[in-house]
Design brief:
The structure is a homodimer of 583-residue chains.
Chain A lengths: L17 E13 L3 E8 L2 E8 L5 H7 L7 E10 L12 E12 L16 H6 L1 H4 L3 H23 L3 E2 L17 E3 L7 E3 L5 H9 L4 E9 L11 E10 L3 H20 L8 E3 H8 L13 E2 L1 H4 L5 H4 L3 E7 L7 H12 L9 E5 L5 E3 L7 H11 L6 E7 L1 H18 L10 E5 L4 E4 L4 E4 L14 H4 L8 E6 L2 E8 L4 H10 L4 H15 L6 E7 H8 L30 H7 L1 E3 L3
Helix pairs in contact in A: 4-6, 4-16, 14-15
Pfam family, one (chains A, B): GAD
Family (chains A, B): Belongs to the class-II aminoacyl-tRNA synthetase family. Type 1 subfamily.
GO molecular function, one term (chains A, B): aspartate-tRNA ligase activity
C-alpha cells in the first residue's frame, strides 16, 4: 500500500494521525534548520515539514536533495500548521515526516506545473503528460468524464441502449473526406473510419432498437482549422416511432439535466426559432442569444433617398451596440477597418450615434434627417446612448458580415459571459443548399433527411425553398447538436437521390445496403448527434476544445508527443500490397 | 406521437383504455369473420384483434392485407382476452383496433424472426438489421449495455476517470500487426489504429491521473480465428501508487459487483493460483475450476516398470473422469482417436477403469498390477466408478493435450454449466517466453511488465524462470482480463529492452516518448484490461461473442452487410499519395 490518504483530504480532524502519502514534489523551501515540501497528487497539495530537531537526521538531509516533480512517499504525523492557509483544503495541517522514500527522480519539467504556466502551446503538447498534471487540464478531463457519465446515465434511465457500431466500415465519396485503412486480408480493398455512425444507427432503427445512443469517436480527413480535430467524439442518438417534437423534448431534457446537475443552473424551456428567423435576426444559424443586438432591416426607411450605396443594395441592415454612443472617431474608424478586413469583407459601414439628448449624429447626415434616423433607431431597437452600425449589399453576405460584427462587439462589450447559458433550437433548416462549385444542390444535412411534406411540391420548381425536418441545438453561439427526421420510405429516398444528382447505380453502390434494409420494414425514425468535445468545453465555460481532449493533435493532424503519423516499415506496405506514391 | 404505450407493457389493469401502438407485424391469423395480428416492438408482443362485427369495415379489410414485418400503427381499446396466454406479459389482454395505419410495407424477411430462426450464420450477418429484431440478439445487445453501464458506474464511484485516448496513433512493429491509416496531410506517413491504449494509459499515470479507465475499441490485423474480431472492445484500466494486491482487489470487486448486480450471484473471494500451479494442475493458464478433474502426475508411480512409453516420457499425467467407468470399448477408442487428432496431437492414451467393486481394469494391465493402479487412482483422485485417462511425453505438450481432453470430457459430462461462475486469479506469470522461430525471448505480456525483484538475478542465467508481476482474471475457462505492474524506472526499462533484444536505437524509435516521459517523474503503476466482448458473452451464459456485437465481421474480416472493405476511388488513392501493389 503506497498511501493511506491522498494529498487533498487531510484536515484538522486528522491531527495526530499517522499517515502515508505519495505524490510529486510541487516545490520545496529550505530554511536550514527546517524545510517544507508541497506534495501534490490528483486530489490536492499537502505540506510536509522536515525539522532539524524533530526529524531523523538522514531523512532531514534526504529531504534537502528533493527536486521539483520527484515522486516520493512519506510517512509521518498530521500536525497543526503554524501559519494556516485558508485557501487550501489542507491548509490547517502539515505532515511532520518520519520516513521519506524517493520513488522516482525527475528531470526539471520543461514548463511550470502551475495554473498559469510559462509553457507555450507546442511545448505543452509535446509534453502533454506533464501538462495533464496542471489543474486546468486535469480538471477539464475530470469534467469531461462527469459530463459523459451524466449523458450516459440520463439516456439509460430514459430507456436508451448504448450500442457500439463498427469502426472499420465502408468508404463513401459523399460528405467529408474519409480516413481509409488498407485491408491485408482483402488486398486492394480498404475500410474507412466512420465520419459518423449515421447509416448504422438507421439500421438499428430498422432492427427495432428504438432508442439508441453511443458516445463514439468519429473521423474526418479535412484540412484542419483551428480548434478542429481529425478525430472527435460524438454523442450519437436515434429514435424510432417519433416525430421531431419527441426528439426535441428528449434532448432538451438531457441538456437541461446536464446544466442542472453539473452547473447547478436551471434554464427555461428552450426557445425554438426557424432557420429563416435566425438568419434574418442574427445573420447566423447558430445565434448567440445571451444578448440582444438583433438585426433591424432598414430597406424601407433607408432606401429611395439620395444615398446610392443603400439604394442599390439588396439589404440594408443594422444593429444597435448598447452604450457605445461615446465611441471616439478613432475607435469607429478602427471598427470600420475591422469589417473591411478580407475575413469579413464589408465594403464600408455607416454609423449613427444616438446622443443622450435624443438627437442623432450619423456618417450619412448629408442624406438623412433626424426623422429618418429616428426610424432607424426604432428598427434596430437603439436607445439614447447607443450606437447603430449599418451594413448593406447582397442579403446573405451582408447578414454574415453583420453577424460577425455583432459577435465581435458583444465580445468587446463583455456580453458573452461563459457562465450564462442560453440554449435554443433552430428548426426548419433548408433541405438543400446550392453549391456554386459543382453547380448543383447538395443535401444540407445528409441525403437521408426528410423534407417537410408540405414543401415537397417545391422540389421541382424551387428546391432551395424546401424545408427539412432538421434541427440544431445551439448554445451560446455554438451549434452543439443537430439532427433530423429521416426518410423511411424507399420512394422518397429514391426521389431524394435523384434530386441530389445520384444515378441509380451510384446510389445503389453507396447506399445499397441501407436502401435494401428499408425494404424490410423501416419504422419512422430520426435522431441527432452532439459534438461532445464542444459541448464539454462550453459547459466548462471555455472557448477552445483542446484542453478537454487528453491527447489532441495539432493543426497538421500530428500528435507531436508520440510523433505520429510516421513512416512505416517497408514490410508492412508489402503485406498490405500498397506502395508509396509521394510526389 | 406515434404510440401511447409500447408492445410489452399493457396488462389487465389497462382494460378499457384507449391506446396507440406501433411496431412490426410478427404474424397474423385470419379466420374470415375475425383476424388477429401479433404486433411486436423492442419491448414485447401485443395481440391485436380485428372483428367483422366490431371493427370498421375498411380497417377490417386493410388488416387482411398486412404481411409479416409490415410496420403499422394502431389505435384501439384494451380488452380482456378470451383465451389468455400466461406465458406472455401482455397475455391477458388484446387490442380491439379502431384505426390502422400502415407506416411501411415490408418484403418477406429472408429468415424467420423467432428465437430459433431458420437463417444460417452468413444470411443472418448479411441481414443483421433483421437479425437484431430477434430476441436472442436484441437481448444480447441490451445485456451488453447493462454490463457496460455497470462497469462505468462502479469504477466512477471508486474514483476512476474515463479518459478517451486517441485512435490515430503510431505504428510499432512489436506485438500483433497494426491496421494503418495513410495520412493525406503528411504524405508517405501513416497512423496506426491502437492495439490497446497501453502507452497512453501509462502516460496518464505519469500525468497524475491515478485511476484511469476506458471502454475502448482496439484493433488487431491478425488472421482471424473463429470468434475473433479485427476490432474488439476492451475495458482498459490503470492505477498509480498501487501494488499488485491493490489492483486485484479493485477488479475482483468490480467482477463480484457485476455478478451480483447483473446475475444475482454472490461469489466468494477469488482463489489465487500461480501460473506454475495452474499449468501443473490443469495444463492451462486459464483453468476452468467449475469442476475438479485435476491432473495427477504419475511419474513416480508409473515409471521404472516395463512400460517403455512411460519410462521414456518426461511426464506421465492423468485425470479421473467422474462416473465414466461404464464407458464402452467403442467409446474409449473414439476418445483415443479424439486425442490423436492433429489438433490435439497425442500419440496414444492409456486408460484405467475404476470398477465399482474397487478393482481396476486398464489398457496396460500387462505392466502394472492392482497396487500400481491403486496408486494412480490416489494420485488422480479417482473414485470407484470413474475412469482414469493418462497421457505421456514432453511435459508442456502433454499438459496441453490433457487439458484439451479435460475440457472435452467436462463438456460431454455437462460439467461446464454456464449459470455457474467460478472466477480466479492466475498470478506470477513468467516474464519472458522463448520464441522458437526467432530463437530469442519475447515479453510474455509486453515490454513494460515488471519482473519480480527477487527474480531479477535470474535474468542473465535463466531468463525463462523470471516471474513477472503479471496476473490474469479467469472465468469459467476463459481469460477475461489480464495485466501487470509496470516498470516505472528507466534503468529497469533499459535492462528489459536489452534482454528483449532491442538495440538502444530501436527502443528509442519505438518507445522514445514513453522513456522520455519516465524521466519526468513516473509513479509506480499498474493495471489491466478486460475483453468486454468475451466478458459479456460469459456473463450472458454464451460461448461465442458474435451475438453480443451489433455488427460483427466474418472470418475474413469482412462486414458482409455493408460489403466492406471495398475498392476506393482512384482519386482517393491519389490524394493519399499511395498506389495499389496487388500481386
Amino acid at each position: 500500500m503506497y498511501r493511506s490518504h491522498n494529498c487533498g483530504e487531510l484536515n484538522a480532524s486528522h491531527i495526530n494521525t499517522e499517515v502515508t502519502l505519495a505524490g510529486w514534489v510541487q516545490k520545496s523551501r529550505d530554511k536550514g534548520f527546517m524545510s517544507w515540501v508541497d506534495l501534490r497528487d490528483r486530489y490536492g497539495i499537502t505540506q510536509l515539514i522536515f525539522d532539524s530537531e524533530r526529524t531523523d537526521k538522514t531523512v532531514f538531509e534526504k529531504a534537502r536533495t528533493l527536486g521539483r516533480e520527484f515522486v516520493i512517499q512519506v510517512k509521518g504525523k498530521v500536525i497543526e500548521r503554524e501559519s494556516k492557509n485558508p485557501n487550501m483544503a489542507t491548509g490547517d495541517i502539515e505532515i511532520l515526516v518520519s520516513e521519506l522514500n524517493i520513488l522516482n527522480e525527475a528531470l526539471l519539467p520543461p514548463f511550470t506545473i502551475e495554473d498559469e504556466t510559462d509553457g507555450g502551446e507546442e511545448l505543452r503538447m509535446k509534453y502533454r503528460y506533464i501538462d495533464i498534471r496542471r489543474n486546468p487540464v486535469k480538471n477539464s478531463l475530470l469534467f469531461r468524464h462527469k459530463v459523459s457519465m451524466g449523458v450516459r446515465n440520463y439516456l439509460s434511465e430514459k430507456g436508451f441502449c448504448e450500442i457500439e457500431t463498427p469502426y472499420l466500415i465502408k468508404s463513401t465519396p459523399e460528405g467529408a473526406r474519409d480516413f481509409v485503412v488498407p485491408s491485408r486480408m482483402n488486398p486492394g480493398q480498404f475500410y474507412a473510419l466512420p465520419q459518423s455512425p449515421q447509416t448504422f444507427k438507421q439500421l438499428l432503427m430498422v432492427g427495432g432498437m428504438d432508442k439508441y445512443f453511443q458516445i463514439v469517436k468519429c473521423f474526418r480527413d479535412e484540412d484542419l482549422r483551428a480548434d478542429r480535430q481529425p478525430e472527435f467524439t460524438q454523442i450519437d442518438c436515434e429514435m424510432a416511432f417519433v416525430e421531431q417534437e419527441d426528439i426535441l423534448n428528449v434532448f432538451e431534457g438531457l441538456t437541461r439535466h446536464l446544466l442542472k446537475e453539473i452547473k447547478g443552473i436551471d434554464v427555461a424551456e428552450f426557445p425554438r426559432m426557424t432557420y429563416d428567423h435566425a438568419m434574418k435576426t442574427y445573420g447566423n444559424d447558430k445565434p448567440d442569444i445571451r444578448f440582444g443586438m438583433e438585426f433591424g432591416e432598414l430597406n424601407s426607411v433607408a432606401q429611395n433617398k439620395d444615398f446610392s450605396v443603400f439604394n442599390s443594395a439588396e439589404l440594408v441592415v443594422g444593429i444597435a451596440a448598447p452604450n457605445c454612443g461615446e465611441m471616439t472617431r478613432k475607435e469607429i474608424d478602427a471598427l470600420i477597418e475591422w469589417v473591411k478586413r478580407p475575413q469579413i469583407g464589408a465594403s464600408g459601414m455607416v454609423y449613427v450615434k444616438c446622443n443622450t439628448d435624443g438627437t442623432f449624429k450619423s456618417s450619412v447626415d448629408k442624406f438623412y434627417d433626424q426623422d429618418d434616423l429616428q426610424k432607424w433607431a426604432e428598427a434596430t431597437g437603439a436607445k439614447a446612448g447607443d450606437m447603430i452600425f449599418i451594413l448593406s449589399g447582397n442579403a446573405n453576405k451582408t447578414r454574415t458580415q453583420l453577424s460577425a460584427l455583432r459577435m465581435e462587439l458583444a465580445t468587446r462589450l463583455g456580453l458573452r459571459n461563459p457562465e450564462v447559458f442560453a440554449p435554443l433550437w433552430v428548426v426548419d433548416f433548408p433541405l438543400l443548399e446550392f453549391d456554386e462549385e459543382s453547380g448543383r444542390y447538395h443535401a444540407m444535412h445528409h441525403p437521408f433527411t426528410s423534407p417537410k411534406p408540405e414543401d415537397m411540391h417545391l422540389l421541382e420548381t424551387d428546391p432551395g425553398k424546401v424545408r427539412a425536418n432538421a434541427y440544431d441545438m445551439v448554445l451560446n453561439g455554438n451549434e452543439i447538436g443537430g439532427g433530423s427526421i429521416r426518410i423511411h420510405d424507399k420512394e422518397t429516398q429514391a426521389l431524394m437521390f435523384k434530386y441530389l444528382g445520384f444515378t441509380e447505380e451510384e446510389a445503389r453502390y453507396q447506399f445499397g445496403f441501407l436502401m435494401d434494409a428499408f425494404q424490410f420494414g423501416a419504422p419512422p425514425h430520426g435522431g441527432l448527434a452532439f459534438g461532445l468535445d464542444r459541448l464539454v468545453a462550453i459547459l466548462g465555460g471555455q472557448e477552445t476544445i483542446r484542453d478537454f481532449i487528453a491527447f489532441p493533435k495539432n493543426n497538421s493532424g500530428r500528435d507531436v508527443m508520440i510523433d505520429a503519423p510516421s513512416n512505416i516499415n517497408p514490410a508492412q506496405l508489402d503485406e498490405l500490397q500498397i506502395k508509396l506514391n509521394v510526389k
